[in-house]
Amino acid sequence: MNLIDRIKLHAAHNPDQVAISWPEGDCVYAGLLSLVNSAIQLLEEAEIEILALDIDNGPAWVALDIAALQLGICLIPLPPFFSAGQLQHILRQSGAEAVVTDNPVRLLQRTGSLLLDGQIKFNLEEHQLFWMKTAPDPVHQKASVPAGVHKITYTSGTTGEPKGVMLSWTQMQAVAESLANAVGLNGDDRHLVLMPLAVLLENIGGVYASLWGGASLVLLPLAQTGLSGSSGIDGKRMAQALQQSGATTAIFTPQTLQSVLEVLERNSDLPLMLRFAAVGGAPVSSRLLQRASAIGLPVYEGYGLSECASVVTLNTPAGCRPGSVGRPLPHIHLDISENGEVLIKGTPFVGYLGDPKPADLLWPTGDLGVLDNDGFLYLRGRSRNLFITAFGRNIAPEWIERELTLEPEIAQAAVFGEARPYNVAVVVPKIGFSSSDIEAALVRANRSLPDYARVSGWIPADAPFSTGNNLLTGTGRIRRKLIAEQYGAKIDLLYRRNQTI
Prior knowledge:
Blueprint: H1 3-13, E1 18-22, E2 25-28, H2 29-46, E3 50-54, H3 59-71, E4 74-77, H4 84-94, E5 98-101, H5 104-111, E6 120-124, E7 127-133, E8 151-155, E9 163-167, H6 169-183, E10 190-192, H7 200-213, E11 216-218, E12 227-228, E13 232-233, H8 235-245, E14 249-252, H9 254-266, E15 276-279, H10 286-294, E16 299-305, E17 310-314, E18 327-328, E19 334-336, E20 341-344, E21 351-352, E22 363-371, E23 377-382, E24 387-388, E25 394-395, H11 397-404, E26 410-416, E27 423-429, H12 435-447, E28 455-460, H13 480-499
Parallel strand pairs: 1-11, 3-4, 3-5, 10-11, 10-14, 14-15, 15-16, 27-28
Antiparallel strand pairs: 1-2, 5-7, 6-7, 8-9, 9-21, 12-13, 16-17, 17-18, 19-20, 20-22, 22-23, 24-25, 26-27
Helix pairs in contact: 1-2, 2-3, 6-7, 8-9
C-alpha cells in the first residue's frame, strides 16, 4: 500500500479526522488528498524526474513530498542548515531539474549561477511558492539516479561534501509502518514537527508514520518551534509550542530535549500532553533521560541511520530498557560482528549517489554495540571515533561528551586523547559562565567517570559548534575530524604546557 492509499483509507473511515494543522488553519484527510492532488497536477505539468525542495515546514512541503512519491519523481530535500557550498554540491551531483522554494532571494544567494535567471510564482492552493529551474552545467557531470529511487537524502557526514543516500518507497514505507505500530499512532494523536522536514528522521518518523497511523500533524514554521539559524534553540518557545499545540508525540534531538527540560524543570505551569517523545539523531546521556523521567516526561531513546531510512531500533512503552536504544523494529535484522560493530542484514538503501551499489549482505554501520539476551541494543560509540590512550585504555569519546554537556555550564564538548596520557576537551561554555565555572563543572562531571575517562584539561571553543561553521551535523552530531583539525594546534599546546608544570 502506498501513502496515498493509506490517506484515502483514513479519509473514508474517519472523515472528520484532522490530517494537518498549521497556524492559518487545518484540513481533514480528504482535504489533504485535495492538496496533494493539486501538487500532483503541478508536477505532472512540469514533466520532470528529479525535484529539489527548499521550503519551510508547512503543508506545501508535505503535499509536494507525497505528490512526488505518487508520481515516482525523485525528491531531494534541501536542509536549511546546509552551507552554500553543500547546497551547490547537491544540485550539481543530483542533476535536479528544478527547485521549489518559498524564499527565492535566499536560495539565489546560496546557489548563484546554478539556477536560471527568473522564477515562476505559483500557488499551491493558498500557499505561495516559486519554481526555479537549474542551469545547464557543462563542467560538472551529474551522477546517474537509478530507477526506483524516490528520495535522496544528503547526510552532512564528516566532510564538506555531503553524501546522497538513495531510498525507495519500499524501504521508507517499512520504517513508517513499523513506527506507527510500535508507537501505536492513531486518530487521538497530534504530532508536533520539531525538526526541519528535510531531516529524514522527521520526514519518515514524524510525517509518514503519523499519516500512516491516522494521526494529526502539527506544522509550524521553524522559528515558531524555537529553532533559529543553524543552531539556535529557544527552549521556552519550544516548550510553549508543545503545550499550545496539544502535542501527544514529538521527536527530539539531545540538544532540543535538554533545552526543553531546562525550561520544564523551572516552570511547573507548562503541563504537556506528550505520551511518547522519541529522542535520537545523536548519542543521549542516561542522566538526561533520568531528568526527563523525574518530571514525568515520557522520553524513549532510539537509534537510526539515513542508510536505513532513519529508525532502526526504538524503546517503547511496551518494551523499554534504560541505557539501551531499544529493540530492532520488526523489519530489521541486526547482528554484532566479532569486533563489536553493529551489522544490519540486507541492503538497507539503494546506495550512495555516484557510488557502486552495496552488496546484499550484512551492512556495517560503523557503530559499536552489544545486544542483551532480550534483544535490546546498547551502543558503545563509533568505531572510527574510538581512541586508545597512552595507557592502553579504549575510549568512546561520545560517552564522556554526554556527561560533560549535562553540566549546566557546558553547552557542547569534543573530547580527544588518542595516544595521550589523559583526555582533554574543546568546550563551548553556555552564555554567562566563566572559566572558573567550567573548571567546577569538569570536576563534577569527572566524579561520574572512571579515572581513565576523566577530562584533565580543556580549551574554550572560538564559537559554538554549528551547521553554519560545518562543525555540527543537522541532527546534532559533532564533526570530530573537523574540530580536531581546527583546534589541533591549541590541543597540542595544552599538552605541552601541562608537561612543563
